[in-house]
Target: RND superfamily putative drug exporter
Amino acid sequence: MSTLLSSLGRWSFRHPWRVLVSWLIVLGIAGAGALTLGAGTDNSFSIPGTESQAGLEQLNRSFPAVSGTSAQIIVVAADGDSITDDPYRKDIENAVDHLADLDDSVLSATSPYDENVSGMINDDKTAGIIRLQFDGQSTDVSEKTKDGLRSVVADLSDELPSGSQTALGGDLFATSIPGVTLTEAIGLLIALLVLIVTFRSFVVAGLPLLTAVLGVGISMAGIFAATAFASVSSTTPLLALMLGLAVGIDYALFIMARHQDQVREGVDPEESASRAVGTAGSAVVFAGITVLIALIGLGFAGIPFLTTMGIAASAAVAVAVAIAVTLTPALLGFMKGRVAGRPRKAPTLRRAQGPKTRDSQPENEGKATPAPAARRRFSDRWVTGVTKHPILVSLAVVIGLGIVAVPALSLNLALPNAGVLPKDSEARQSYDLVGEQFGPGFNGPLILTGSIVTSTDPLGLMEDLGDAVAKIDGVKEVALSTPNETADTGIVQIIPETAPDDPATADLVRELRSHHDEWLKEFGIDLKVTGFTAVGIDISDQLGNALLPFGIFVIGLSLILLTVVFRSIWVPVTAAAGYLLSIVAGFGIVGAVFEWGWFSDALHVAKVGPIISFMPIILMGVLFGLAMDYQVFLVSRMREDYVHDPDGKSPDRATRRAAALRAVRSGFTGSAKVVTAAGLIMFAVFVAFVPEGDSSLKPIALGLAAGIAIDAFLVRMTLIPALMAILGERAWQIPSWLEKILPSVDIEGEAVERERHLSAWPGDDSVVAADDLALADAGIEALHLRVAQGGTAVLTGGAPGALRVLALTLAGRVTPDSGRLRVASHLLPGRAAWVRAHVGVVLVSDAGAAASDLSEALRGRTALVVIDGVDSLPAAERDQLAARLRDADAATAVVLTAASPVSALEILAQAGRPTPDVIDVFPSADTPASRRHPAVLASPAGGLDDNPGSAHSDESSEVTA
Model:
């Protein structure tokens, strides 16, 4: 991957206009899709497979008058008046008549004075409620209808006696559509300031913001365009906005910081951009993939709107990654070498003032003496202090975060309702008035429904059922217990004693469901508990049940990914433990603010109480990906320094431990600046959504901001270095059996660095160059080989299977175990994709297909063709093969493998190809010298040794096995 990204970065640097225009076209297409296809967001929550959802679907079929969304108007009489007085009754009933004729979507408007309902006038007769039932869910009710409702309520308020109150609310107005406010721009301003300090350049600092804003624009437009095909909640775009901005800025920051450091060291800007995308860009792609997996894992909950939210947010992250590795180097291509920024002040020399002599002149006047040593950077002093007392630091962090996590035990989950809207909202005022006048349970009625088609006395049956329900603890009253018009379905409307988001209401729902079998036996009705409140409780319960499997998935994923990346057991364990600490501490801070009320006024929390039910699972998924970002960027630098320290391979344990400690300190110092900037930027972006943010998004934003700050600065930059110091060299140990089965993942750009070190090797224009090539499956330990452009070679000896492995290796289809191999100017294994594109391979297994396979292999600009097993072909097929080779480009090199070279030599002679070098890959004592030495060169002196265990000799030129 790193070599692919390196080439992509180089191409983007060379063609900046193409890349920029391409992304602008994508933005235009997405924007046009959003304008033409956008159908608006949908805040109706459903959860297939639950009892409440099944109940709603049953009501929709048999009792549509109570299945859709509802609204209510509360009227509170003036002090000393009664709501039953004639002036109130007349005005309210006139308003009910207007409401019933308002729109076709209004199925019914019920007066509080209706004899068929009870409980619509409170016990003190100071307030009454008008109930409205609509056809469909809240998103199906048009804005025109809502405006008509507001107009009727305003007229009613004008007509009622002075001192009375009216408020419009209910399920229809229970949720708000979140939007972007000016406060979010403060987060971007803080991010810009951090970038200016990091890059020491105003222009360079603006580039990550530019890429992030462009990425967010594309993803947001795509999400709104997708509303034409899927139901998207109003919280989804803002979550994608938060994540897109945060990761978009950070990913560009990682690449640009690496590029700037390299340019300051004198690296050519184009080469630096290529290296930066190949190294830091590889880590960016890995980090982005972890975020994607975690967000897509939100589907664990089995809740459609949450799955859609995860997919939308992951799309925003994917766009941010794609822009980071393409548009970032393109913008660097516009700037060329103007990215170094303002240089830091270099240490100056001071003039020495020596002792006075007799002529009153200082003895050393005019002589320059070195300035005092430069002050140690804060990151160096920090990591030194942390690693000097690692056990004490570790205990302090763990105990401190444990204390911070205590409020998490108080977290209660619920779907948002009008009670969490701002206090100046009319729906919130209605919610509070209803709770004050009728009791909190009136804001969240429950519905029991079931089929009564077999009943001979539906009215009596429903009356008896209502009486039984009224006896249940937690039921304040049964407002309605009646069959529908066709007497095949009955409903019981229950008013709980507690608010819809109160845990006691969830307990009541469970209690009602526990009587299912009893009432089925007594009344013969298969009852289901449903309604808006029951749906919210079911969603919260299912989300709570999904937390454990999701947590196991996320932590297990982190263990696997980090084990593959770092080749270590302890590094993944410490990373996962740190992630758990960050999560519970983030939950603790959310609990302290939203459950305990700490700083709730300062953060404009509308109501202290239960938080939105999908906050924990979103926080776990998002924070996992971001935490892995910091883990990779910090610890990969430590690993790199330890691997390149000769003392790390010392037989003396104390020496290895000292090397490990040095690597922790140097790796931390080398990456602390970028990680600090990234943490501050993400914190600023997330925290900006807290003060004026939507009530549903506010706890998520606060949890992410707190989690990022804790994870970046307390866990990754304090606890992890301390734990790594405690572990010492053991941090980098892994069982040999596990090492063998782990796939190789290059996220540190090792392949890019290898290419840089071997850029001058082999020093000629050979199409195939191999030194110390080892293939365990073929039994080859140290093969040296050269094939010139347009040249030919015949590889022979050994078992046919071994030669086939060698042929596939030269064609880029099999990865060598060690050694150096360059084919068609590309270094393997990093450039295997390029080699496969320029090298054809023919495996002779079906004689009749060999010639046609060769024609296919020679298509295009083929630099090399490898043909395996030619000695198994009959004479006629050899002639066809020779004819194809005769017509091939003379510049195409040919390598044939055969157990015996005779057939291969005949084919090449018929094709008119140059006299081949015949090389016995497995020479024996009686192998002629002519088959030992031609075109076989020793490994050149110097250069990067990729196989330290193999011998390099300038005198030996044998092919060895």
Summary: Residues 2-44+181-335 form a domain with the Multidrug efflux transporter AcrB transmembrane fold fold (CATH 1.20.1640.10). The radius of gyration is 37 Å. The first strand starts at residue 70 and ends at 76. The chain is about 50% helix and 10% strand.
